[in-house]
Amino acid sequence: MNKISGFAQRLLEEPPFRLFTKAVINRLPVSVRSRERWDVAPRPNYLTGVLAAADQALDEGQQEISVFEFGVAAGNGLIALENVSSDVSAETGIKIAVYGFDAGTGMPELIGDYRDYPDHWQAGDYPMNEELLRTRLKPATTLIVGNVAETIPANIDQIKEPIGFVAVDVDIYSSARDTLFKLFARPGRKMLRRTMMYFDDVDLRITHKFAGELLAIDEFNASNPFVRIDRWRGIDKQRPFPEAAWLRRMYIAHDIEAISKARSGTHKTYAGIDDDAGWPG
Q1: What is the dihedral of CA 263, 268, 274, 277, to 10 degrees?
Q2: How far lies 164's CA from each of 94, 126, 177, 214, in Å?
Q3: Close Cβ partners of 281 (under 8 Å, ≥ 6 residues apart)
Q4: pLDDT of 107-134, one tens digit each?
Q5: What is the CA angle 133-213-143, rounded to 5?
Q6: How far is CA 139 from CA 43, 83, 180, 239, in A?
Q7: CA proximity to 146, closest of 180, 175, 185
Q8: What is residue 72's three-state secondary structure?
């Protein structure tokens, strides 16, 4: 058989109506929920996470949330988060504050053993052009530069909006560990009962649960009785593209303490989809 293009291969391997519908939606002024369902976004992981966070805020009676990207580098992800947040805010009425945290100089010094994947990354990888990036960001977006072990404690108490969505793209164990512990293990934390999360480096060929972001998640769960981080279960249900790789990188931080105190007398739904479809309630 002659070699065919990747697009043609996809047409042969799956029902073509999905691709046609997605292409149509990409060209029409449809709702944010329609774009989310069909993965029509530069970063569908951010759109799904922020929209679910806004729905969670509505469920809890909150009027505003904060969303974060840890590991900003060149800034393309943070700009995508800005745009997604603006669209979701316009559709849901939830006010969304956007924050980006990054060392600025690239990855910090590694801890010196296998846990930071030293054969794959090194200190200084992914440096930021801070001056240029700040000219590209919206005025309302907050960019905080420095080591997260220091910048999170120095700034988090000034952020009044409950945490709704967190994207962790710091690659290495030590930075992921500091991010999770400084963000969710502190007294007086302010987060939704279920905070949506995305971990960028949990399904690479090099990754395993004894290092990197996966190890950071395990250590956090083992030592924190109040917040537990788990995979976002059921997120692939009722989606046109349930095989999308990014779905396996979506997680939820469950505030066990707050959930234990909360009570609900009604059966919740999101956008007409029953809880059993995988939306966090």
Answers
A1: -50
A2: 11, 26, 19, 21
A3: 59, 194, 268, 270, 275
A4: 999 998 999 999 999 999 999 999 999 9
A5: 20
A6: 21, 13, 27, 35
A7: 175
A8: coil
DSSP string, 214-261: HHHHHHHHHH-SSEEEEE-TTTTTT-S-TT-GGGGGEEEEEEHHHHHH
Model confidence over 41-90: pLDDT tens digits?
999 999 999 999 999 999 999 999 999 999 999 999 999 999 999 999 99
d(CA 241, CA 13): 13
Helices 212-223 and 173-184 pack at an angle, to 10 degrees, of 30
Residue listed under structure tokens 């395990």: 218
On whether the 34-261 domain is CATH 3.40.50.150, my answer is yes
Q: Which two tokens stand for residue 130?
A: 């801070």
pTM: 0.88
